[in-house]
Amino acid sequence: MKIRTITTGISLESPTDSARIQQAAQFNTQAQQELETQGYEVQTTRISTQSFEQYLPGYTLFEILDNLQKLEEICQALNLDFFNIGHAKTPELISVIPAILKRTEKIFCSSTIGNLQDGINFESLQASAQTIHRISTETVNGFGNFRFCAAANCPPGIPFFPASYHQGESAFSIGLECADLLTEAFSKSRTLIEAETNLTEIYAEHLIKLEATASKLAQEFQISYQGIDASLAPSLDKTNSIAYAYEKLGLGKFGHSGTLAISALITRVIKKIPVKLCGYSGLMLPVCEDFGLAKRASEGTYNLTDLLLYSSVCGCGLDTVPLPGNISVEQIEAILLDVASLAIKLDKPLSARLFPIPGKQAGEMTEFNSPYLVECKIFNPQPSRNPSR
Questions:
Q1: Which of 184, 262, 282, 310 to pair with 202, CA 20 to 30 A apart?
Q2: Are 231 and 282 in contact, with CB atoms under 8 Å apart?
Q3: Confidence band (pLDDT; 50, 70, 90) for 387?
């Protein structure tokens, strides 16, 4: 098991509050060193803030961009690669996001399109669809959408980007990368019952140990510990694909019948581990961050609708999903409506990180050339269904 991220949340008084940012960066470094002495590989450390509208109140577009470029300079000076400025709630602020991402490299952010208390925010959802579309045309190869998502019913304290945001006093959380645990558990399982038992034992062993170290860090540095996002996040390692781990149970390829049942099993295990959980704490199925998921998508064993179905029992929603460059704003809106409706109906955090690829059609291969993503055939946003005969 690897640690994908140690994420420290802070509340800024201004975007140039470098002292507080530096303090968080120092804690992240010390926490990483401590965890590495315990034998963990820590891939990234990250900082997340409250919604940027709170430290840029009433600013004009020019003033927002000017201040966030100063924040970007602070990130560069401190060698920070992952900095999240929280979420935007209003259509006016959401519409600024393409310009922010175009002018920065380290900054991530999200929009809020609904929650359980207030329902779907249709105006913000529409603005988010427009923003996804604009980012795809206004950043190089549309890659700015890697740093943006539309989120529904997402709480503060999620360690994973871009949905992460913070509230209150400084605190930290931990996000995992643990597809190898799934592979280990399912490789020695002959039935679903055995799979659930084996995964529970393996997961509990690792997470209880990790929580002991996290609690020690919290006490030593006098910082609040928000918990572990125990989501089963994948890696780019071909041998530890989530999709291939599913297939070790003998129910066919990922996407075939049985995929939903296995997804539900994994989430049941995660929810009953006796540690402090935070964030999504479900199953992540980011299409372009897992070799097997990308391969099965390219083979057509599952589609966009299937991913939404799996999100009903697990998951964080639709993540790193490649879409054709000519997708309309209305089609993106419809996808976001489904995500938000599911999140609110089931009272669970879901988000959508969608990648319209400029100049590419459904069925063509992506060309990300990115260390963070694997190539995949582009999804058809409206897959055809064969009529019954």
A1: 310
A2: yes
A3: very low
